[in-house]
């Protein structure tokens, strides 16, 4: 790996394209390096993971509305279009990317990478797959494109914090997805460079979508970034250009949206000829909740087994979760969002409320992507009473461990439960059980089990198995077989027609 130094340049300073971050990213995308076997295996795992969580969500409001929008846009003349989960016809490529992106993101249940910023790098897969189907690519080309999308998003997340300036994390996704499509199609560096610039320029937005009363737009945000990436590549292929230098310019993203005119970053990027392996640093979720809650659900399950009294609000005086800065201020009481303690809050809000999640997991000893968020479950009086006794506190040790590199990195903390009789129960957890460094790391068997648990009730046994049979053969799929990397839902699994829109 090499570090690409990024800083702001005045308009009267000369910064050749070869020195720009967008160009360096385009060079990485254009490097025809082979995908290693372990990376290919992990890409297959994540394709399976995305499909499982999408299957579990297809009947919900946001994916249904996105699917209805997509259905109104037939394929363009440039190819046969692309498939949409649970839709029996093809649609225009950018709308397929959008609809599938919403379905994947809806339950907050697919993969994650956390460092200087946040990301769900599996959001790269829907737009890259949609373009692969539309353009008749094969499985090997799709693998190369997805490897690029993961690599560049994770490299950006390692170096550049967006959330510190209240910019949503999809500003790293638009450029990475555009670059991944460029790799898929073997486009020239110049074209990929222009697509990256357009995608970044049009996907910067505020983090209000993840603050206060969180809305259905949370699922749409990365899907919209993927759609924009497809459109950016299309324009760049037609010879259209983008704002430049998009990162380093005097009025660019860094100068006005991030750390300002005096900022500098060192973005790690692969050397020419170096395999793109960043996907191996990412991790999926065992539970349908924001990633920084994963370890706390696992700890709550352990406490439930060992100390049943911790779920009884009559016996608990207070619960304080000592954790990292990010966890405290994003999903903890440090966010100062009263909605995080509101039993009438939206599902999207509750899956970003660590006090709620910890309370329910303490009482139930388990977590379910639907039942744990049901309005009746959230409003249960004993749950509300326990929930409001839970607070979080930033702990410098756990913040440092959050930012540590390698095996020392942690997304957990220490909990102190004070009982009404004065006794304390203290325990801690570093990473989620399913994390590569956790008690039960996910491998292929666990990805398939998660897929089957989520997908079979919606797709049926035969369709779920058919999809798995295709997905595990991804590296060897030809263009025709790649069209089968989708699924149909059981009769009655989808809602009827929703509210009409413009299309």
From TrEMBL:
SUPFAM superfamilies: 2-methylcitrate dehydratase PrpD
Positions of the MmgE/PrpD N-terminal domain: 34-264
Positions of the MmgE/PrpD C-terminal domain: 287-472
Family: Belongs to the PrpD family.
Name of the protein in its database record: MmgE/PrpD family protein
């Amino acid at each position: 790996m090499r570090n690409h130094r990024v800083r702001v340049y005045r308009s009267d300073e000369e910064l050749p394209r070869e020195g720009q971050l967008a160009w360096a990213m385009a060079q990485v995308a254009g490097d025809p390096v082979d995908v290693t076997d372990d990376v290919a295996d992990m890409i297959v795992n994540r394709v399976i993971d995305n499909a499982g969580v999408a299957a579990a969500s297809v009947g919900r409001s946001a994916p249904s509305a996105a699917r209805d929008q997509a259905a109104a846009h037939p394929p363009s003349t440039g190819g046969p279009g692309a498939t949409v989960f649970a839709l029996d016809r093809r649609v225009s490529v950018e709308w397929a990317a959008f609809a599938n992106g919403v379905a994947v993101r809806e339950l907050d249940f697919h993969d994650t990478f956390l460092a200087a910023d946040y990301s769900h790098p599996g959001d790269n897969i829907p737009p890259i797959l949609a373009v692969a189907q539309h353009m008749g690519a094969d499985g090997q080309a799709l693998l190369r494109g997805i490897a690029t999308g993961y690599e560049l998003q994770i490299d950006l997340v390692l170096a550049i914090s967006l959330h510190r300036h209240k910019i949503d994390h999809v500003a790293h996704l638009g450029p990475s997805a555009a670059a991944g499509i460029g790799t898929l199609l073997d486009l020239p560096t110049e074209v990929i460079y222009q697509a990256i610039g357009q995608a970044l320029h049009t996907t910067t937005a505020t983090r209000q979508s993840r603050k206060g009363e969180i809305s259905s737009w949370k699922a749409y945000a990365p899907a919209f970034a993927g759609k924009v990436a497809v459109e950016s590549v299309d324009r760049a292929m037609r010879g259209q250009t983008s704002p430049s230098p998009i990162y380093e310019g005097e009025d660019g993203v860094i100068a006005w949206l991030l750390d300002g005119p005096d900022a500098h970053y060192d973005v790690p990027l692969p050397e020419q000829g170096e395999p793109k392996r960043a996907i191996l640093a990412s991790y999926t979720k065992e539970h349908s909740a924001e990633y920084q809650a994963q370890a706390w659900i696992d700890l709550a399950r352990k406490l439930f087994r060992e100390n049943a009294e911790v779920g009884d609000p009559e016996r608990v005086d207070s619960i304080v979760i000592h954790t990292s800065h990010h966890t405290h201020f994003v999903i903890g009481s440090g966010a100062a969002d009263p909605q995080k303690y509101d039993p009438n809050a939206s599902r999207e809000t509750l899956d970003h409320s660590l006090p709620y999640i910890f309370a329910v997991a303490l009482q139930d000893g388990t977590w379910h992507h639907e039942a744990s968020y049901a309005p009746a479950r959230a409003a249960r009086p004993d749950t509300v009473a326990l929930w409001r006794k839970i607070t979080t506190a930033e702990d410098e040790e756990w913040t440092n461990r959050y930012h540590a590199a390698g095996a020392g990195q942690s997304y957990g903390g220490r909990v102190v439960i004070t009982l009404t009789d004065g006794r304390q129960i203290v325990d801690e957890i570093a990473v989620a059980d399913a994390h590569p460094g956790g008690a039960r790391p996910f491998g292929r068997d666990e990805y398939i089990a998660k897929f089957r648990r989520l997908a079979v009730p919606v797709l049926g046994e035969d369709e779920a198995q058919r999809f798995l049979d295709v997905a595990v053969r991804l590296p060897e799929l030809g263009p025709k077989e790649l069209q089968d990397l989708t699924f149909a839902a059981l009769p009655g699994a989808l809602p009827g027609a929703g509210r009409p829109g413009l299309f």
